[in-house]
């Protein structure tokens, strides 16, 4: 027999069992008769096993029995770390654990927290097929050796968390109900964990099943239980049920807390029902529950995203009334919302209000304001405000510099743009491809291609990789400015760097060539691309059709459009609209109609603007039948006619002496709920006047016709007043002209004074109408004075004005000679 010292010196500890080794050092073995395949550590750990235990050892047992291992584990009950190490060590030695050994280690670990149990259960779950141990059988064994389920609470928690870690929601819920049948009553905490786990997986039905099981087991849900259910229901879009749960919560005597309400509000916002979130906030205020700014901000953000900005602003004001201080997020949501709608005045008012309250701004909010300036074409103002923000000490980031650089480039202030670019670098901010591309675009816009190319070279030199947008802008700049060879060299360079030009790149080149007057070069490029099989798609055909149009080649554009249709390609909306517009402008309604018909054959409806142009073109030609056909087709396509479309058709009928049909359309428009504008009323006023004159103003019924026309004018003007529509210069001119034609010169002069009092400046047509009125009354001197007044105001009289004046003078002299 080896001495203890000898056996100790020969023992080689496997890596990974240091705790067993440490235990071995402190507890030397005193039982020398264990089988040789046990390490002396194992022998020490299982010493004192009764000699009366005789168990059959299987070939896969590592040479010892489950009773021996279980007994050994029980002796380590107060040393869970060493017990777990022994449990794992025995597996490495070939022992196959069973229910008894697993239940032994679980009991030991349950007293030392859940982390080790979670790891143990996770391994058991993942290897369930290999281990052959059912969770229910394990818990049954545990229950037999415990004083009740209370001692297994930690075990139950660990099991549920292990299923979560392993991503097995179905198995988790199966275990939950199976163990319930065995008499295990989980804690509310375990139920919460399981419900949260299932809710994240989107399993609403099972979440509700767990809640029902809790009630069946006699468990009392708390505020967090209801909060989880509300969250799950909102995620599934079941808002009505979520409200029912909130009511049930109150009925059970549980007062919703801030977390519950915030969860509900967030759910409403996520479902696009921020108005309900707003209602909940009002309810909270009535109940006296203090809600922080986060909850208010969620609703404000939701309302802003739904474009319900007025309600969001009211909620912002309500925050102050509830003694909840708004923060930068509160104002930022509203500022972003108003900037998104282009209401810059409102956005700036809110910004000033925020600053006046001592709420610090940030670069994100400022970027909303500056971007809005740029989108509205107010690049100069964007630059001014950028400087103002800069002077205020605001920490500027790369985004703000990019907006300012882009604004300077749009204004053509390339020196200032470059200065900002250099300033940015001095501050340690690294320009990216967007900053470089903005500079390149600015130089291309000014035609300074040498500088654009230099910026591109600097960009590549500092390892900022250009993207397709950069290449497209530079290539387009080269083409527009006549540097065709350089454009193609750039494309070669682009491909050499492993970036393949896409159809958009070539489309930019084609459009750039056309804008630069290089239509022949654009045609050659398009032909080459066709031969290579590249120009077989919408993008390139659209570019060439549009390129012809901006070069004034409408005939060629139409022919290419027809050819593209034959090849099954419909050019994009921009090219289609421009083609229809150009054809209509040239009065070529036949071809414009053909474009419409071909589009409809391809199941693509033209837009409302295109319909308007075609209907206007037919109306201009006096072809009201076809104008009406396309008007009806617009309605057939599901497009709602607007006031512009109705006015266009009404004007056509008025010019075609069909006032009755124009009046019918006017009434139809109002019945559809479309509010007439000042132009529509002006068309109708002018139409009534001209019809009266055509029917014989100088007949014996002159006075009767004067009464009729005044009555019609009165009805129309009353309608304008009821709809709060103010006459503009054109409308006043029609009214003045009509009163002059009816010999109501004094009324015409009153209208003339009225329009000036409203701040409207008469134009040459207005003065000419009054000149005719004076001349028709024989007051040529006053007419001449009126012309002098025109000239004094810088209004140039036209030939009609002088013609009327000359005729008036001749008539006066003729009368004097008689």
Automatic annotation (TrEMBL):
Keywords of the record: Repeat
Molecular-function annotations in GO: mRNA binding
UniProt KW Repeat keyword: yes
PPR repeats: 152-186, 187-221, 222-256, 257-291, 292-326, 327-361, 397-431, 432-466, 467-501, 502-536, 572-606, 607-641, 642-676, 728-762, 763-797
Gene3D superfamilies named in the record: Tetratricopeptide repeat domain
Cited PANTHER family: EXPRESSED PROTEIN, RESPIRATORY COMPLEX I CHAPERONE (CIA84), PUTATIVE (AFU_ORTHOLOGUE AFUA_2G06020)-RELATED
Protein name: Pentatricopeptide repeat-containing protein At2g26790, mitochondrial-like
Native source organism of the sequence: Phoenix dactylifera
């Amino acid at each position: 027999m080896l001495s203890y010292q000898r056996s100790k010196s020969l023992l080689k500890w496997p890596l990974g069992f240091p705790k067993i080794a440490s235990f071995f050092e402190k507890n030397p073995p005193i039982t020398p008769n264990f089988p040789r395949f046990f390490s002396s550590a194992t022998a020490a750990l299982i010493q004192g096993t009764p000699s009366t235990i005789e168990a059959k050892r299987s070939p896969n047992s590592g040479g010892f029995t489950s009773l021996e291992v279980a007994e050994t584990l029980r002796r380590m009950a107060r040393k869970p770390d060493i017990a777990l190490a022994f449990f794992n060590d025995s597996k490495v030695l070939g022992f196959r654990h069973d229910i008894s050994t697993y239940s032994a280690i679980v009991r030991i670990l349950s007293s030392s927290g859940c982390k080790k149990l979670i790891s143990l259960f996770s391994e058991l779950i993942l290897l369930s097929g290999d281990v052959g141990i059912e969770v229910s059988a394990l818990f049954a064994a545990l229950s037999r050796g415990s004083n009740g389920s209370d001692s297994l609470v930690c075990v139950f928690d660990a099991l549920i968390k292990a299923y979560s870690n392993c991503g097995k929601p179905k198995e988790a819920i199966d275990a939950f109900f199976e163990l319930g049948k065995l008499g295990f009553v989980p804690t509310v905490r375990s139920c919460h964990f399981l419900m949260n786990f299932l809710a994240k997986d989107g399993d609403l039905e099972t979440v509700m099943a767990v809640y029902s099981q809790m009630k069946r087991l006699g468990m009392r849900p708390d505020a967090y239980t209801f909060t989880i259910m509300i969250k799950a229901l909102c995620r599934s879009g079941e808002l009505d049920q979520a409200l029912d749960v909130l009511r049930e919560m109150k009925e059970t005597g549980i007062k919703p807390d801030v977390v519950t309400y915030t969860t509900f509000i967030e759910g409403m916002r996520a479902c696009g029902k921020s108005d309900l979130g707003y209602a909940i906030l009002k309810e909270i205020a009535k109940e006296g529950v203090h809600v922080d700014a986060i909850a208010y901000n969620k609703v404000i953000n939701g309302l802003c995203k739904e474009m319900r900005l007025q309600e969001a602003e009211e909620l912002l004001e309500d925050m102050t009334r509830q003694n909840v201080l708004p923060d930068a997020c509160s104002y930022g949501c509203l500022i972003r919302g108003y900037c998104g709608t282009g209401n810059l005045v409102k956005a700036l008012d809110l910004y000033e209000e925020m600053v006046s309250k001592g709420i610090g701004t940030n670069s994100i909010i400022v970027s909303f304001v500056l971007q809005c300036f740029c989108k509205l074409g107010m690049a100069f103002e964007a630059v001014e405000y950028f400087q103002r923000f800069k002077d205020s000490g605001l920490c500027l980031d790369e985004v703000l510099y990019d907006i300012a650089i882009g604004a300077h480039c749009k204004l053509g202030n390339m020196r200032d743009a470059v200065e900002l670019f250099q300033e940015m670098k001095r501050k340690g901010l690294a320009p990216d491809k967007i900053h470089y591309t903005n500079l390149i675009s600015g130089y291309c816009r000014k035609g300074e291609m040498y500088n654009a190319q230099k910026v591109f070279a600097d960009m590549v030199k500092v390892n900022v990789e250009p993207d397709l947008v950069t290449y497209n802008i530079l290539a387009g700049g080269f083409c527009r400015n006549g540097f065709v060879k350089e454009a193609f060299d750039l494309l070669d360079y682009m491909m050499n760097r492993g970036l393949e030009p896409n159809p958009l790149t070539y489309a930019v080149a084609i459009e750039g060539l056309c804008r630069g007057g290089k239509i022949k070069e654009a045609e050659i490029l398009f032909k080459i691309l066709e031969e290579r099989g590249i120009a077989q798609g919408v993008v390139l055909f659209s570019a060439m059709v549009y390129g012809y149009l901006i070069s004034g080649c409408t005939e060629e554009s139409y022919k290419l459009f027809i050819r593209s249709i034959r090849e099954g390609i419909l050019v994009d909306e921009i090219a289609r609209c421009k083609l229809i517009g150009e054809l209509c402008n040239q009065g070529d309604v036949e071809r414009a109609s053909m474009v419409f018909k071909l589009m409809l054959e391809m199941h693509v409806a033209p837009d409302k603007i295109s319909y308007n142009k075609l209907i206007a073109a037919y109306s201009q030609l006096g072809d009201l039948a076809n104008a009406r056909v396309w008007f009806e087709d617009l309605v057939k396509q599901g497009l709602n006619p607007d006031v512009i479309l109705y006015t266009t058709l009404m004007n056509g009928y008025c010019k075609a002496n069909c006032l009755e049909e124009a009046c019918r359309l006017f009434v139809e428009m109002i019945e559809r709920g479309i509010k007439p504008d000042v132009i529509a009323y002006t068309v109708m006023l002018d139409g009534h006047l001209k019809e009266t004159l055509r029917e014989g103003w100088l007949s014996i019924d002159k006075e009767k016709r004067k009464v009729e026309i005044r009555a019609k004018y009165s009805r129309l003007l009353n309608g304008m007043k009821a709809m709060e529509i103010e006459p503009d210069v054109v409308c006043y001119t029609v009214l003045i002209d009509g009163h002059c034609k009816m010999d109501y010169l004094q009324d015409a002069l009153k209208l003339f004074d009225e329009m000036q009092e409203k701040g409207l400046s008469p134009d040459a047509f207005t003065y000419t109408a009054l000149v005719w009125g004076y001349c028709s009354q024989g007051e040529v001197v006053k007419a001449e004075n009126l012309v002098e007044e025109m000239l004094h105001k810088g209004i140039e009289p036209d030939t009609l004005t002088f013609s009327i004046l000359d005729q008036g003078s001749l008539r006066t002299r003729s009368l004097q000679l008689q």
